[in-house]
Design a protein that fits this description.
- Helix content is about 75%, strand content about 0%.
- The chain is mainly alpha-helical and about 230 residues long.
- Helix 3 packs across helix 8 and helix 4 packs across helix 8.
Length: about 230
C-alpha cells in the first residue's frame, strides 16, 4: 500500500490536470511536471512525517529515514557513475524490447497522455512555453522528485523490508517500478535500472547514493526530450 497508493493518486491528478492543461493550450507534459509539487511531494513527505509523529511525537524526517550512514566523496561520485553507466549499457542492449513494450502497452492509456503524445504536443507549443517547461522539468523532475522518492522508497521503505534480506531490494525495486504504472512501457526499464541502486543503498546504508543516481537518470531523460524537441523544431 505504501509503495503503490502514492502512484495511484499521482496518476489520477496527472490525468485530471492533463485534460485541463490541454484545454487551455498547455501540454500534458507540463501537467506531469506540476503533479510533482502538488501531489508527489506532499503525499510522500506527509506519510513520513505522519509516521514520525507516531514514533517520536514530533515531525522529523530523520526519525524515520533508516539509511542515513555518511558516505565518502568517492562513494558519492563513483557509485552513481558506475550505476548510470551500467544502466546505459543495459538500456542499449535491451532497447528494442523496451521500445516494443512502450508501443504495445501504451494502447492501454488515453491517447493524449502517452509519452509520444506528451512529447509531440510540446513541438507545436511556443518557444516560451517550451523554455518554461524545460526549467520546471529540470528543477522538479531533475532534482525535487528524485530526492523525495529516494527518501521515501530507499530511505524510508527499504529499511523496513530488511527482514526479507536479499529479496528486499528486488521487491522494493519492483514495487517502485509498478508505482509508475501510468507509463506501463517504462515499468520493466525502471525495475532493471533501480534494482542495483536498491542493493547498493541497502549495503552502504545510504539513501543519498540512490538520490544522486536517480537525479542523473531524470536529468538525462529531461535533456533527451528537449534535445529531440530542438532537433524537431
Amino acid at each position: 500500500m505504501l509503495h503503490l497508493v502514492p502512484g495511484v493518486i499521482f496518476a489520477v491528478l496527472f490525468f485530471f490536470l492533463s485534460r485541463i492543461f490541454i484545454q487551455h493550450g498547455l501540454t500534458g507534459y507540463l501537467a506531469l511536471i506540476m503533479a510533482i509539487p502538488f501531489c508527489l511531494v506532499p503525499i510522500e513527505v506527509g506519510v513520513m512525517l505522519l509516521l514520525s509523529m507516531r514514533i517520536t511525537g514530533k515531525r522529523s524526517l530523520s526519525a524515520v529515514i533508516g539509511y542515513r550512514q555518511k558516505g565518502t566523496v568517492v562513494e558519492y561520485v563513483v557509485f552513481p557513475l558506475l550505476l548510470f553507466l551500467c544502466w546505459g549499457v543495459l538500456s542499449i542492449t535491451i532497447s528494442p524490447f523496451l521500445q516494443y513494450l512502450e508501443v504495445h502497452l501504451s494502447v492501454f492509456l488515453p491517447a493524449w497522455i502517452s509519452q509520444e503524445a506528451l512529447i509531440n504536443a510540446l513541438i507545436s507549443r511556443s518557444p516560451t512555453q517550451r523554455s518554461i517547461t524545460l526549467l520546471l522539468a529540470i528543477l522538479l523532475s531533475g532534482f525535487v522528485a528524485p530526492i523525495v522518492e529516494e527518501l521515501y522508497f530507499r530511505g524510508f521503505l527499504l529499511p523496513r523490508m530488511e527482514h526479507w534480506e536479499w529479496a528486499a531490494p528486488v521487491v522494493n525495486s519492483f514495487l517502485f517500478a509498478v508505482y509508475h504504472f501510468y507509463f506501463p512501457g517504462n515499468v520493466l526499464g525502471i525495475f532493471l535500472a533501480f534494482l542495483p541502486i536498491s542493493y547498493v543503498v541497502m549495503i552502504k546504508k545510504n539513501w543519498k547514493i540512490g538520490a544522486i543516481t536517480h537525479m542523473m537518470f531524470n536529468l538525462w531523460g529531461v535533456f533527451s526530450v528537449f534535445t529531440f524537441l530542438s532537433q524537431a523544431a
